[in-house]
User: What shape does this take?
Amino acid sequence: MRILIVDDEPALHDSYRRCFAPVANEDANALSAMASELFDDAVEAAVDDTPVFDCDHHLQGLDAVAAVERALAAGEPYSVAFIDVRMPPGIDGKETATRIRALDAEINLVIVTGYSDYSPIEISKVAGPADKIFYIAKPFELAEIVQTATALGKRWEVDRELAGARAMLAQQVVQLEEQGAELAANESRAVHIANHDSLTDAPNRLAFTRALADRAKQPGMFAVAMIDLDRFKLVNDTLGHLAGDELIREVCLILQRSAPEGGLVARLGGDEFGVLFDTAGDEAAVMAVDRIVHACAVTMKVFGHSVQGAASAGLVTAGDNGLRDPVDLLRRADLALNDAKRNGRGVARLFDESMDEGIRVRRRIESGLSQAIARGELAMVYQPIVAREQLEVMGFEALLRWNTQEYGPISPAVFIPIAEESNLIHELGDWVLKESLAVLNQWPGQYVSVNFSPRQFRRHNFVGYVMECVQRAGIEPHRLQIEITETAIFDDAERAAETLYKLRQMGFRIALDDFGTGYSSLYNIRKFALDSLKIDRSFIDGMGRERESAAIVHSIIHLGKALGLGVIAEGVETAAQVQSLRIAGASHMQGYFFSRPVAEDVAREIAETRFMGDDPSQDDVSDEAPGTGTDG
Ligand code: C2E
Ligand code: CA
Ligand code: CA
Assistant: This one.
């Protein structure tokens, strides 16, 4: 403890020295006890050791002031100063105290004074605060000095520690405040990122479902629409991902512009968007979404390429009394979207209950189909394809039948598309091809025409796969005709052209099925190595009734001839159709008129007979076709 003593009387300094000389043990203990009484328990430990005093003595006030200044500068301030009042010839005690106080706010001043000198109040006024100024009357007791010095010194120490702690706390508070501000900034950034899509900066799926949940809690009718780009994958695959991204951004802007006012447009992921808006009713909602779909159908410039925009939409409305569960609403909008995609694309569909039922049936079919082979529920039937002139049976189309234990027969028109959506199609296709090739041994020379779905056709190394199957069955390639549809080849025309070329090089026959129903131009098919076109039966069916169908049939036959292709008319049911097709020049015919698809043993008889009647123009047997009736 640093103590400052200023008194003009040298003899008094000796007294002070005696006071502060190291004390005997007993005295020290007494002092400790006193100190712990003065201060609370918290400082007791510190008080326990006997204080050691380090005293500086001065005879004049100015010297003392200078000493205080030095001590402060050195970082070793005094805790207590004993100041005599009368110190001629220099400044008096009051002035000394005043100056010291001006330098050091913490120091405890003890004024050593006679009764006639300044009153405590006077000195406090200039060298206060009052709780840091004390008085000892002259002449003093030594013990009085020591006690005062000890008490004040300890208090000074505690004050200093407290002040230090307070300063540290203040600094920590500042730091915490800074960190808090930074955290808040980070948090708002994180919240933004969590709720927005980085590509378009539109709200994302999370934000959309939240907004939907919030909206569902409020009264009033609203609509949820899901919008999906048609053929986005094509842009991605042909022009690259950057172009795909650009297209997404463009479309997002279009959606934001064309969505109903106050509506929320969010990117749900990939090329899928969601729109949430208030509406007056189903009709108004459909109109609003129709507008959006139309707005998307524009040509956009993406990295210098013209890209035709196209979108499909599914929507569902939620009235005050109906279903308002967000998850269910999203699911329903999605079902409606699927329906829109299945039925032509580029349209908006409003959800209806049948869509939900449809999904359930699909799931059931899918699970049943996965066990169909093992359960022996599958069978092949064969339908003859005859040449125009003498109705010679040239080949048979192999058609798959599924007779379920649970629901009876299910049409391939129903289950093939479902198998096509999962990997089941490959398993089924393998089975079909194996069965169809096996049956060839029973026929004198006809070919078998097997349907391949787009996914089968696009599977890796399709050519090698078919070749291997044929070789294993010991069959000549020209006895297998591969039927594929336009969709299988036009979605990736270049690769398809190559695949077809290879197949044809190896000797397989190739027929383009359902011709006329797709979107390919007649002109485009030149690029593909084909043997024949199969005119879709909807045209044959319409031939007698609509001029249009007849015209299409004629032009397809024409085109086929010009390209050196055979033309197979399928779905021939009447003698009249046979007649007109013969005149038009179809090279082959197939249909109930000649035979329904028949079981293996019946097909064998037909194959061996070779000809299907000699004059078909005699009568019309559309429903009672010759042969049998095993068609499902
Ligand atoms: P598709 O390839 O166009 O097959 C011709 C469909 O027309 C067959 O229906 C056949 O039974 C039916 N049909 C034949 N002649 C007539 C007729 O004179 N009038 C009428 N109204 N219909 C006739 P099916 O067997 O129900 O097959 C439907 C579709 O299922 C097929 O259409 C084909 O796309 C697909 N499919 C059938 N079997 C297979 C298969 O093994 N693999 C694949 N990938 N698809 C198959
Ligand atoms: Ca076919
Ligand atoms: Ca067909």
Q: What stands out?
A: The pocket of C2E (ligand 1) is lined by residues 383, 399-400, 411-413, 416, 432, 451-453, 513-514, 537, 570-573, 591-592, 597, 631 (CB under 6 Å). The chain has three domains: 2-163, 205-355, 381-613.
